[in-house]
Design a protein that fits this description.
The chain is α+β, with helices and mostly antiparallel strands. It has helices at 86-94, 145-154, 169-181, 188-202, 219-227, 238-242, 245-252, 262-272, 276-303, 305-332, 377-401, 410-428, 430-441, 450-460, 465-476, and strands at 5-7, 24-26, 29-31, 51-52, 101-103, 111-115, 122-126, 140-142, 338-344, 352-358, 361-369. Residues 1-84 and 95-131 have low confidence and may be disordered.
């Protein structure tokens, strides 16, 4: 019978995503086989314990006081089967992934590993019933100019037809007028935006910048990671350890002091952007963004503090009256642990929904328009609803197609979310359905009859009949 064990994870292990750890123990003779895969989808970064126990040794009872009475998890996820060669295991041990073992008398219900004695493979199970259900009332409504400056810079690059397009002629006109009023000198962004726009259009991989603000600890970390993407880190050797602080300082030369999580972000950006032209864009983007922030944006946001606060309060009033109630069933099924809504004056109708996996949690961030008058409050909320709906409908699209559609078919995901929102509002909050359709058809002042408006909406956002039925069933069950 297998012996439950307790694995102490090294500090390094806490910095990566661990896929699976397997321990085999038999009697007093302990044989340890441990596995680690940094690219897995399950984060155990903050976990102090990982428990193994053979499912075959457990009785199917409700008690969880001992490993023999632990109930088998009923909702398996992250089913990752792994097998490593002896040389791979040796390398993992040398790099500090594997540490010591000691026996425990009980196994927690929330996390366990199942193994087959005849196989160097393991399957990870997580008991859904042990996870705390997310309460949508915990959603935070926020503003952050250090996030907004990234989207402000991206708004200078027009990408027609792309769902990530932030360019808006009225926004650029508004900014140009503000720069005149504040007597702002021409910035690097003003000078280089045509050149950068051309590069941004030609390299779709650069759309990743829309997610970047939420990967960094703060603005300084993001700016430094982008501008220092070509920075190479030296690996520490035994000779380095024997060096004096003065010798190490002299050898390091001009290596900059790194802010926040820049050291972790730089290798990630290197891997994502291997092409020299992409890296050149990122460095120029960071330079233009920082120059724009210094010359104009910080002062601009300070001047409009009162206007921003009024927009925030308008949204909050709607949120308390009807917004939370409308979003509640979608947010409750969003499979997140932390949910933040950022109101941003740059955003028009193309919002942002950015999930970030952090240790064992999913942090979901939505960037939505900051309403500048009462008529824009509903539109701002509709963007929040649409981005939240994606958390569910994207999975429905994946299940229907069998795999993720090509990037060029991103419109399939968009249309599915639009259709789900429409039938949800039509059935549950009909007083907002017409306004929703007008918002995303850019027909705010139209006098079309409801039937004509719905026909136009469905024509603009077509969904396959088979997917429609799946979405309708899902919405019906909300």
């Amino acid at each position: 019978m297998a012996i439950p064990v307790y694995l102490r994870l090294s500090r390094r292990s806490k910095l990566v995503v661990l896929s699976c750890l397997l321990l085999m123990a038999s009697g007093t003779q302990r044989t340890t086989r441990s596995f680690s895969l940094p690219s897995s989808s399950l984060a155990l970064g903050s976990c102090e314990k990982v428990i193994y126990s053979d499912f075959a040794s457990r009785k199917n009872t409700q008690s969880a006081k001992t490993s023999q009475t632990l109930r088998k998890p009923r909702w398996p996820t992250c089913l990752t089967r792994l097998a490593f060669s002896p040389s791979q295991k040796e390398r993992l041990a040398e790099e500090g992934w594997l540490l010591g073992v000691e026996t425990l008398g009980k196994v927690p219900r929330d996390l366990c590993l199942s193994m087959r004695p005849d196989s160097l493979a393991a399957t990870l199970f997580f008991d859904q019933s042990s996870a705390r259900a997310f309460d949508p009332r915990d959603i935070q409504i926020l503003m952050n100019p250090d996030i907004d400056i990234v989207y402000h810079t991206l708004a200078y690059f027009s990408v027609p037809g792309d769902p990530s397009n932030l360019f808006s002629s009225d926004y650029i006109q508004q900014i140009n007028k503000a720069k005149q009023n504040l007597e702002t000198p021409e910035s690097k962004l003003d000078q280089l935006s045509p050149q950068l726009e051309k590069m941004y259009r030609e390299m779709p991989s650069l759309r990743f910048l829309n997610l970047a603000p939420f990967m960094a600890d703060d603005y300084a970390s993001l700016k430094q990671a982008l501008s220092s993407i070509d920075l190479n880190f030296r690996s520490q050797t035994d000779e380095d350890i024997r060096e004096s602080p003065e010798e190490r300082k002299a050898k390091s030369g001009n290596t900059p002091i790194l802010f926040g999580n820049s050291r972790r972000l730089i290798p990630l950006l290197k891997n994502r952007f291997p092409v020299p032209a992409e890296r050149q864009f990122l460095k120029q983007f960071a330079e233009c963004m920082d120059d724009e922030r210094t010359l104009f944006y910080k002062n601009y946001r300070e001047v409009r503090t009162e206007l921003d606060q009024q927009g925030y309060e308008r949204f909050l009033k709607f949120w308390k009256a009807d917004g939370l109630k409308m979003l509640y069933p979608w947010a409750q099924r969003s499979d997140v642990n932390v949910f933040n809504i950022y109101l941003c004056p740059v955003i028009r109708r193309n919002g942002r929904g950015v999930p970030i996996n952090q240790e064992q949690r999913v942090l979901f961030n939505i960037v939505a328009p900051l309403p500048e008058n009462s008529s824009q409050v509903e539109q701002s909320f509709f963007v929040v609803l649409h981005e939240t709906t994606h958390r569910s409908t994207d999975n429905l699209v994946d299940a229907q197609t069998g795999s993720r559609p090509d990037v060029r078919d991103a419109v399939v995901y968009e249309n599915a979310a639009f259709y789900a929102d429409h039938i949800y509002l039509k059935n549950s909050f009909p007083q907002y359905d017409v306004a929703y359709m007008k918002c995303f058809l850019s027909l705010d002042n139209t006098n079309l009859r409801v039937a004509q408006l719905e026909s136009e909406f469905l024509k603009n956002y077509p969904v396959a009949d088979s997917l429609k039925r799946v979405i309708e069933q899902f919405v019906h069950n909300l």
